[in-house]
Design brief:
The protein is α+β, with helices and mostly antiparallel strands. It has helices spanning about 15-20, 55-70, 105-120, and strands spanning about 1-10, 30-35, 40, 45-55, 75-85, 85-90, 90-100, 125-130. The strands form two sheets. It has a four-stranded mixed β-sheet with strand order 1-5-7-2, covered by helices on one side. A hairpin with a 2-residue loop joins strand 3 (about 40) and strand 4. The protein is elongated, with a radius of gyration of 16 Å.
């Protein structure tokens, strides 16, 4: 299974990622997930999230997750891009692509990866409150 992980301070360029997709003739599904920063978190208004990552451990944990995915599903590839640093509201912070022979495998693997990433990968987010509006 091909694996590609990118941590970046740059905006996620979804069109470039889509045009770089590579899949063999036996693959029938590519599932994509694009996660955005919401304007509220736990009821508080936000202007952004600040993401921090301990990159060596992040890479290690993702390789473990990718290895587990390879055991569970017949995947051809997984690509994941996660922003670090400040990400403003309505900007994407996470992009995931899973390529598999069938959609059920691709959807299941993508969902599992995102759930496990949130559980075990050391990427922390700090909410940045939006400035109160002035009368």
């Amino acid at each position: 299974m091909r694996r590609h992980l990118t941590l970046t301070t740059e905006p996620i360029d979804e069109p470039a990622l889509l045009s770089a997709r590579a899949l063999s003739h036996d693959m029938g599904a590519a599932v994509y997930f694009l996660g955005f920063v919401r304007a509220t978190e736990q009821g508080a208004a936000l202007s952004a999230l600040e993401y921090e990552a301990f990159e060596p451990m992040v890479e290690h944990q993702f390789q473990l997750l990718f290895g587990e995915m390879e055991k569970r599903w017949p995947l051809e590839s997984v690509r994941l891009v996660h922003r670090v640093g400040r990400v403003n509201v309505n900007e994407p912070s996470l992009w995931v692509e899973v390529v598999a022979p069938h959609r059920s495998e691709a959807f299941a693997a993508c969902q599992w990866l995102i759930d496990e990433m949130k559980r075990v990968v050391p990427i922390w987010k700090k909410p940045i409150a939006s400035a109160p509006s002035r009368p």
